[in-house]
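Record format v2
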Amino acid sequence: MGKKQKGKASVLFECPPLITAAASVVGKKEGEGPLGRYFDQIEADSMLGKKTWEEAESELQTRAARLALAKSGLSREEIRYYFGGDLLAQLIATSFGAVNLEFPLFGIYGACSTMGEAMGLGAMVVEGGFADHIMAAASSHFASAEKQFRFPLEYGNQRPYSATWTVTGCGTVVISKGRENGAQENAGQENRAMAKITGVTTGKIVDMDQKDSMNMGAAMAMAALDTILANFRDLGVDETWYDRIITGDLGQIGRRLLVDYLLQAGHDIRKRHLDCGIEIYDSEAQDTHAGGSGCGCSASVLCGSILPKLKSGEWKRVLFLPTGALLSTVSFNEGKSIPGIAHGVILETPKGAR
Amino acid sequence: MGKKQKGKASVLFECPPLITAAASVVGKKEGEGPLGRYFDQIEADSMLGKKTWEEAESELQTRAARLALAKSGLSREEIRYYFGGDLLAQLIATSFGAVNLEFPLFGIYGACSTMGEAMGLGAMVVEGGFADHIMAAASSHFASAEKQFRFPLEYGNQRPYSATWTVTGCGTVVISKGRENGAQENAGQENRAMAKITGVTTGKIVDMDQKDSMNMGAAMAMAALDTILANFRDLGVDETWYDRIITGDLGQIGRRLLVDYLLQAGHDIRKRHLDCGIEIYDSEAQDTHAGGSGCGCSASVLCGSILPKLKSGEWKRVLFLPTGALLSTVSFNEGKSIPGIAHGVILETPKGAR
């Protein structure tokens, strides 16, 4: 086993890659939520000036990439690869969003865990020496997701309280080569960075035979549990190693399940757990029921509100764990369950947590 | 720019990862084609004993993974990650195919370029020291693809001559850590390997405003051209550096376009070009029109017929270039074009080509 490899599913980087820029572009509803003031751009027009919802979602990716690029101070040519994904079949938001950027592209699919997968792979590719700078991004759009997975908006379907509301938003980070031990090179970059990526725990498919597409939190909770326990086991740590464990979009029901499962396993994460889906909306005032969801949920909350707290040193170490429910209308209508997956990324303050 | 990075989109490995095992599982029609005798398993039952086509495709992935594992002599626990993808929305063939394998999973989407993307990322992760062994796989199934992208099979739609036939098949490789310069470690493994992965050229989205979903070859030809020229430019080589340049599934029309484009750019690849989609069927006798397609096409041809020729030394160096047409019924029906992407992987005989 290589020296960067820990246990069955985790890696710790010898030269942790840096998140050198981050951008979040969200919709009006997200802008009106409790985290509204943290997002870079709030789009009042849910169509973003385009003709279809899918084009609007692509535009979210394009705008977030342009903004992240501008913040990074890098030229387009310096970004070697784009690791991107979305919820739509054939990743059309990513394909059409990335076409004008002309980055070599790795299309990624992990449902709402996509940002964790993109950052994990991107960080490995940077630390492995294959790129000096990459971009990782994930987007979702309420209307394109409803169209693909649920009912026509015009139908005005009633949503149960276990349902989540797909976030309209995109979060994009630039991941850059970190500073090698003792080296002066990249020292300035490290000081300006938002966070270091010190490790990754890659999730596996967990199928709990959950068949309620209006309760995705339950489908994902066991996948989150599986990856958290793998992380603890692989690294020989427990919940106290982290200032926060931040899941993607479990929502109220998924959160309760995860907390209970972990208590049974001897881990009390209640004081240090946050869920991006719960944070992004005021569920009562905004009528979002169990919380927000979609790849864009954890990605935009990461960029808007998590990374700044790592940059400032308010949090020293965070386990960022986007959670995905692999809902397909085809397999679902054929009577199959909704499997889940969760990908963990360990983020630390650039001010030196260890 | 790191020393492994070449030009804008390519990498050359200092310690090339090895393909230590490969398995191909295909359908009856593929077994009856010109390459039939090269495939490991030919499934007479297109349902593979399952109830739906999607489950049948998942079963292709499960069987190919089990076979590749058996051939590699490794235990399931020694495979650190599974890089897999398919054509179906939300990668259901991969998710359900991988669930019983319990590998940490990176879901990949690049349409029919998926095998190139999975192998490129997998090789980087291995060479970067993050895994000693990974699995890369891609599958497609004629009936699940027709159902998703075209017409119900029962409708008996007429297919134009430019259309391709989606391959029922899965190809799976095990990629293992290579031998470091001069080291004795892994020497035996290198002798037994099927090929070395010496480099990767990652494609970008190329949109030629092609809007005919029954002529995917035309949508992909320019993407193939773009990645081939990037590969030549990045590495300072030309077509003569390769014994074969093998595209994924351009078919007859796409091949003609690619050859013409390259001739205009001053490169004559006619004598060294193969296309997996053209090779896999006898288009006249098997009524497959322009050729085979689908992620499983290039993946199964790679495992069945390309890797053995590298292992024997008949070919010293091959540019393997799966090509993808990012067809989405949603964006297509909204009047959008079909963009293409092609991911290149440089394969060399393990007997030492350089």
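The mean pLDDT of chain B is 93.
Chain B touches chain A through 63 residues (CB under 8 Å).
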